[in-house]
């Protein structure tokens, strides 16, 4: 079957071109077209391609051309997404920032702040909570998460990492581990209910977040893009309980530290997670006609 590949870039000197793929519109899948294009231009490996119809509708890799109204001598539009980087690698870089930054501010506090002082219980607990959170995220990235999209544009790694390296890294660490919260300072005083209550809520939220990630992982067999409706702990009320539990974990850190830097990070992170949750919630309802109607996007009974 002959297919015309046109570029979305009007300045391209490689396109349009005619690609011949073995089979018919009824049997050829979009993935086969991607493979044929990558074979002709190795620079445009499959993850770097976006194949669409003329009206910019992205073609489904697992569907045949006929299912997407592309017939003999039809035209498919190609966009170069640029150099790609694996999502797993992106997450490792993002979460690695706070794991490097917090120990520097905590253990080199005399050098950074120019004075010697003893860390308060609040500072010590916060340090371990932050470190355990991001160690958990790294381990989940390696052993739990299965990605429906394997890569993202390489340049995005800098934008994505800035959120973690600066807001939950430098900004949070500098203001929480400073001498103004050191042992003996009024601002650092926490009674046992305040201190251990915050830690307990944080631990419950982190474990709950892990459980929801495991539920999502078990929905998708290895090496597939299978999608299904998640059920179980957390999913009875919201579509994205993993985001809700993460919000609760960081809220516990906020109330333990009372630092504006923790609240800032939590507000920004929660805002982004809510945007993702709304999008996923809409996709679930669109894709599954029997999707539970009582669920909200992220926050039970509210939104």
Summarize the structure in words.
Its EC number is 1.3.1.93. Residues 31-80 form the TECR-like N-terminal domain. Keywords: Endoplasmic reticulum, Fatty acid biosynthesis, Fatty acid metabolism, Lipid biosynthesis, Lipid metabolism, Membrane, NADP, Oxidoreductase, Transmembrane, Transmembrane helix. It is a multi-pass membrane protein. With 303 residues, the protein is an alpha+beta fold. It folds into 2 domains: 2-82, Phosphatidylinositol 3-kinase Catalytic Subunit, Chain A, domain 1 (Ubiquitin-like (UB roll)), CATH 3.10.20; 86-287, no CATH class. Helix content is 51%, strand content 9%. The chain is built from 8 helices and 6 strands; from the N terminus they run E-E-H-E-E-E-H-H-H-E-H-H-H-H. The chain has a 4-stranded mixed β-sheet, covered by helices on one side. A two-stranded antiparallel sheet has the order 5-6. Helix 5 (156-176) packs antiparallel against helix 8 (260-287) and helix 6 (192-219) packs antiparallel against helix 7 (241-257). The protein is elongated, with a radius of gyration of 24 Å. The chain starts with a strand and ends in a 16-residue tail after the last helix.
């Amino acid at each position: 079957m002959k297919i015309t590949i046109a570029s979305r870039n009007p300045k391209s000197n490689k396109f349009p071109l005619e690609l011949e793929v073995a089979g018919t519109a009824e049997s050829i899948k979009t993935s086969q077209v991607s493979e044929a294009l990558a074979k002709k231009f190795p620079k445009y490996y499959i993850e770097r391609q976006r194949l669409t119809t003329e009206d910019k509708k992205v073609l489904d890799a697992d569907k045949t051309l006929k299912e997407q109204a592309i017939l003999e001598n039809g035209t498919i539009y190609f966009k170069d997404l640029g150099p790609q980087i694996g999502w797993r690698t992106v997450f490792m870089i993002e979460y690695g920032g706070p794991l490097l930054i917090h120990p520097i501010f905590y253990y080199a506090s005399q050098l950074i702040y120019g004075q010697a002082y003893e860390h308060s219980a609040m500072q010590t607990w916060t340090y371990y909570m932050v470190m355990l959170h991001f160690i958990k995220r790294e381990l989940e990235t390696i052993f739990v998460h299965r990605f429906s999209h394997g890569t993202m544009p390489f340049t995005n790694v800098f934008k994505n990492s800035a959120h973690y390296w600066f807001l939950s890294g430098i900004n949070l660490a500098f203001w929480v581990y400073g001498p103004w919260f050191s042992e003996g300072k009024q601002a650092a005083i926490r009674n046992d209910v305040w201190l251990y209550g915050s830690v307990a809520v944080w631990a419950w939220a982190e474990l709950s977040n892990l459980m929801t990630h495991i539920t999502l992982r078990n929905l998708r067999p290895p090496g597939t893009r299978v999608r299904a409706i998640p059920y179980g702990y957390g999913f009875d009320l919201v579509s994205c309980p993993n985001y809700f539990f993460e919000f609760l974990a960081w809220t516990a850190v906020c109330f333990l530290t009372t630092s504006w830097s923790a609240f800032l990070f939590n507000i920004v992170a929660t805002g982004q997670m809510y945007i993702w949750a709304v999008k996923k919630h809409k996709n679930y309802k669109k894709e599954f006609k029997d999707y539970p109607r009582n669920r909200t996007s992220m926050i039970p009974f509210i939104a």
